[in-house]
Amino acid sequence: MVDPCATGLEKRTFDFFRTRTAPCISGYFPDPVWDRYVLQTSQHEPTIRYAVNALGALHEERLLRKTVNETCGDAPAISNGFPVLQYSKALHGLQSLLHAKTIPMDLVLMAVLLMVHFESLRESFVPALVHVEHAIRLLHSSTTFDARKVDPNLVRSIMRLDVQGSLYLGMRIPGLPFYTAATDNIFPTSFHDLVQARDLINVWTCRLFHFMRAEADEHKFKDVGGVPLEKLAKSHELTQTFVDLDALLWDFMHKPTLKLTVLEQLGLGMLRTRVKINKILAATCLYSEATMYDAFLPDFEDVLSICSYILASDAADRRLLTVSLDEGLLQPLFTVATHCRESRIRHSALVQLRKLASSEGSPRGIWHVEAMVRTAEVCIRFEEACCERANPSCSDIPEWSRVHSSGFDGWDVQPPKRQRVFAHMRLRPNGMDGEWADVSEAIEWSVSSHSMLGGAERQLLMEHDQLGQRNSYRHRQTVSARDGWALGPQTQIFNVAVRKKNCGCSNYDLDDLQKSCVQ
């Protein structure tokens, strides 16, 4: 039921959020947070209502902008500050909630989830991660509320965003190990539904990335060799866990009485790709040799097949929103393209990646999708440049010419200025006994105005671009050798931006976010 005091615009925006935005965010699985909690709470809590209006209006503008661009329709330039103004009101409301004598954590977490999706949709990822980091710090605190009374569905939603941050920022440690350590410790013998499978896989994904970032990366990129036995045992334990999870998903998929909707079938495929990629990461996280990945060609091919099926079956307009926070396609395909050295498999993965960045999958100009596609292209071209065969296999690419890790910067830059990023690659050209060498390649493109969300004034401008406009890329390559580089300098930028010292409950200062939102 819509608030009877709401304006016509607010009523329409809420209806759009309920019918279009919330289903996109919940994705392939039933989720009480988006199916019920947010919708019900927005009727009596102004902060949640403002955040719902902001996200729904921004999503609708993106869809309208995409439709105009695809149909070559002439649309006048429109300056609509409604989403930004609603977001600013939501930030004020969140500040009031945080200043209360007893912090209503369920409301705070709901507001944070909405704001993270708003910032991600306009590709302002540092503010999005600021929200996530502060929510995690609030969950760590026990002075102003009882953490045991927080709805676990909300915590799981924050945990999924927490894992997203560690996926894209190579040195970021997940912030919820205290929660995952006490959750889902009993390993089931079978899955009774996909929600149970998703929750268990997310918990173990968080545990895996905490181990990788906090312990394993030290041996993989810095102090190579000399791995303690207990860390080897942990790596083997995690690998076996994901092997077992893969088997449980396989058994669940072949239940004689199983009946899944189309979305649930795609969700099952997404979980299978995540488990297979996690198994590869767990098995290789302590070793700096890139040839370790050659043993997982069947898994890479399975991941490619599943992702291709999902891309061919899923509705493209859903990815307009969900591509902002990876739904389980972008990262697996990028991993296959950059870590699998079998030419047929990696080039097929690159083709699927381009679909995510194309007008059929999502609006051209989503910079981090374009940047990931171009980074994968750079890695493949770099590794295959010295091969005599047109379609090299794993054995044709020696260890000394392989890219061990890759990444790109620009996460902290405002969207209109992201017309140039640096793709970073790390390799050992002198063999395993030599030093690390870093290769940086500048990638430049002109971004169409309809994709520029943000800027100094943070206004949302709808401008018509001619259909068929293409990004023009120019490459420049530089080579340097630096010690201690790991998965891109964007991580250090992020750490400076969001990991502030002494940031407790009372320090969730939203003034900077408000100033950056509306002048």
TrEMBL record:
Keywords, ordered alphabetically: DNA-binding, Metal-binding, Nucleus, Transcription, Transcription regulation, Zinc
GO molecular function: DNA binding; metal ion binding
Pfam families on file: Fungal_trans_2 (PF11951)
Name this protein carries in UniProt: Uncharacterized protein
